[in-house]
Design a protein that fits this description.
- It is a single chain.
- By secondary structure, this protein is of the alpha/beta class.
- 43% of the residues lie in helices and 22% in strands.
- The protein folds into two domains: 80 residues, Arc Repressor Mutant, subunit A (Orthogonal Bundle); 215 residues, D-Maltodextrin-Binding Protein, domain 2 (3-Layer(aba) Sandwich).
- The strands form two sheets. Strands 3, 4, 5, 6, 7, 8, 9, 10 and 11 form a nine-stranded mixed beta sheet that branches. A two-stranded antiparallel sheet has the order 1-2.
- The radius of gyration is 23 Å and the shape is globular.
- InterPro entries: LysR_HTH_N, LysR_subst-bd, WH-like_DNA-bd_sf, WH_DNA-bd_sf.
- Belongs to the LysR transcriptional regulatory family.
Length: 309
């Protein structure tokens, strides 16, 4: 075995620079100065005898080999973290730090009601939350930037294990006065394709809405412009179209002080499965199951007690 091996700190610097594309932001993420990060990368390049990063005043450009080393470094760092997690899991469960990603169509509507349960059940847990779109959250999970993600399934998130918490039905939201004469539940054929407003790409709710309707013309003609559910509600109230909203958002008061009317969607897959997901084979699986139980109980006590079918 070679005496001279890259250190985890050097690999951390390299991966951070690849993730952020900027020396200053990468240094901030690693809690070091920019000069310390630059020196560590130069040491790594000297150790390996190759150039990994092309440095210019305006851009940071990885060499082809640098990209491959960064990919391998990311896997090494994740394995090192899981080694530490394996040791921690053998001690007191759900104690110390845990980084959880949460998607924007869940975070503001569910977390305020379940965090109290988590604090009560696991007072030694230091939970750090990271709100990202579904696509970005899954990428953060597989890069090791978060330990688990509170996600809505189905969604293509790579190789993961999960625990389902509850079902979250979808509703169709109409502008003021436009729902008159419509039935109490809305079937997909009642939705005008050119009027459907959806979230931007990267949000799993867009795919859930289109999947539940199962109408190809909706995917072709729907407007995908909303950056948040609050933005979609404002557009609907101003008569720009209709949209899909999850029950948990309605329960949290998203439509309070608006004239928007929401009715249940009557379709085969008219609900998303709120789940806690983590990397497949993680040594912390038992901890994540405990966390899922606490989230499930907290949601049930808040009214989100619909069991996953």
């Amino acid at each position: 075995m070679s005496t001279y091996l890259p250190t985890l700190k050097q690999l951390q610097y390299l991966v951070a620079l690849r993730n952020y594309g900027h020396f200053g932001r990468a240094a901030d993420a690693c809690y070091v100065t920019q000069s310390t990060l630059s020196a560590g990368l130069r040491e790594l390049e000297s150790l390996l005898g190759v150039m990994l990063v092309e440095r210019t005043r305006r851009v940071v450009r990885f060499t082809t080999l640098g990209e491959r080393v960064a990919d391998k470094g990311q896997r090494v760092l994740r394995e090192a973290e899981e080694l530490a997690a394996l040791a921690k899991a053998g001690g007191k469960p759900l104690s110390g730090e845990l980084r959880m990603g949460v998607i924007p169509t869940i975070a503001p509507f569910l977390l305020p009601r379940v965090l109290a349960r988590l604090r009560e059940d696991w007072p030694d847990l230091k939970l750090y939350l990271r709100e990202e779109t579904s696509g970005a959250a899954c990428e953060s999970l597989h890069r090791g930037q978060v330990d688990c993600v509170l996600l809505a399934l189905p969604y293509a998130c790579g190789d993961f294990d999960h625990a389902e918490l509850f079902l979250d039905p979808l509703y169709v939201a109409f502008p003021p006065g436009s729902a008159k004469g419509l039935p109490a539940t809305i079937t997909p054929d009642l939705i005008e394709p050119s009027q459907l407003l959806l979230l931007e790409d990267g949000h799993c709710l867009k795919e859930h809405a289109l999947g539940a309707c199962n109408r190809p013309e909706l995917r072709a003609e729907a407007s995908m412009m909303g950056t948040s559910l609050h933005t979609l509600v404002q557009m609907v109230e101003n008569g720009l179209g209709v949209t899909m909203l999850p029950h948990m958002a309605l329960q949290a008061g998203l439509l309070d002080h608006t004239r928007v009317v929401a009715r249940p969607l009557d379709a085969k897959n008219a609900a998303r499965r709120i789940s806690l997901v983590w990397r497949a084979g993680s040594p912390r699986e038992k901890e994540f199951q405990l966390l899922a139980d606490a989230l499930r109980r907290g949601a049930g006590e808040s009214g989100d007690d619909r069991k996953a079918a």
